[in-house]
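Lecture 7 notes. Example A: sequence first, then its structure tokens.
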Amino acid sequence: MIDLRNLDVRHMTIGEMARLNGVSEQTLRLYEREGLFLPLGRDEKNGYRYYDIRQSAQLDIIRYMKELGMPLREIRHHMTDWNPARLKELLLKNRDAIERRMKELSLQKRAIERAIDSCERYENAPPDGALLLEYIPRRQMYIKKNVINFYDYEISEYEKILRALKEDMTARNIPPIYYANAGSLIRREDFLHRNIFSDEVFVFVDRDYVDEELITVVPPGFYLCIYCDRFDKEKEYIDRLLERIKEMNYVVTGDYICEVIMEMPMDYQERGMFLRLQVPVRVEQT
């Protein structure tokens, strides 16, 4: 802390001015180069800068405007040509930019939370082929309909479908972070008749960031689930689901969902995916 009792407040060095106002000497030199804040004078012999404590008021204004997000060139303009209307316009723009950034950060945080949840579910998931009855809360998804049943094609066709999904999401202003872990649907009647047909892919989304009319709600409830570590096992595991449904006298109440819990690097020819294959059910009353 600087001792004001012995300070010549009308003839302060750059170091004293900096310490008094809680800034660095480099900051004062920068402000000087920008023509924003000049020393009161210079010593003719040694070239040292000298400041007056009364200049602190000007420095306070500069620092306040900087905290409001104003660039130095705008601050200089306002310091030399004060215009409240122009200042208000600039502040409104800064506020809107901050709000956009806050929304982006909130969306990024939500994406990180989803990724953490996926990691934890993968770490604690049962082994491949395990069948479980699980309660799953309400979810929201965006569904993209395609023109083909991708189960009739090789994995390369699935990749084409994912490219189309990404393009479609961009056109509808759906944040690209939701593109991760796209899944697929088989409608209830097709599933019950083991018609392995899907011309729809989906991504899970949040209401706060996607237009309401684009959202399909997946109701909460109990789902018969089987975990699967390879895409090419899916048809076999669908048979296991159907067998367990018959064995336990379950009633299928909705569509089959192939959810990607985690994507893992394998090789350039195929995605490494850990899946939760699931179908909503209830127990048939006897």
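Example B, a different protein, same format:
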Amino acid sequence: MSQLLADLQQNLSFVLVSALIVAVIILLSRLGERFLPDLHRPSKARFVTIVGICAALAAVLYTLDFPLPFLAPDFYKLDFSELPVILCGFYLGPTAAVTCEAIKIILKLLLKGTTTAFVGDLANFVVGCSFVIPAVILYHIHKTRKWAIWGLVAGTLVMTVFGSFFNAVYLLPKFAQLYFGSDLSRIIAMGGAVNPAISSVTTFVVLAVAPLNLIKGVLISVLTLLLYKRVARPLFGK
């Protein structure tokens, strides 16, 4: 805990930017719920219980992340932590999903700490929400398998496009600032060692970041479609 606090103090500007981003995401989820009049609203105790269970499962899955060394440098990792988050969102809505995503990050930091000065954890939260929020909102418009598929497809596409843009504009420069004295060329070189076609920020996000997010979105979408009906009764009592 003391190390986490020390890291936070050393990255105050980053913390402020992160807080602003989180506030915007919460606002988007709340606005989305205003157009979902048929949203299931359990008691507060049940809401907290379900979100807590899903966040705990997501945190465990987050600690089990792993790299895809044939696709991207090792500091980019694949995890399945959005699976419990999106299951929670399908039942309770976008605000619950964002809350679950945030608690997941907090629990992971307490369990495992951070090896990326919180940049990777912010990335996981923001990019994860870019997948979950569209998918959950579209599913709640019409709670059918067809709309679940459309939502998951939309979420995957948004995560792939937005994740690439967010990496290019903010995350990669921040990683370079923290670890390489703002020398982006060293990160590009790490990508080039994996794929010789990577020679710039643009090729890095197109050839490494975008495929990684696309793979993650497809895998989680398939697992969601396979598991939601099966876990709805034992997990949600539905």
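Note on Example B: DSSP finds nine helices and two strands in the chain. The mean pLDDT is 86.
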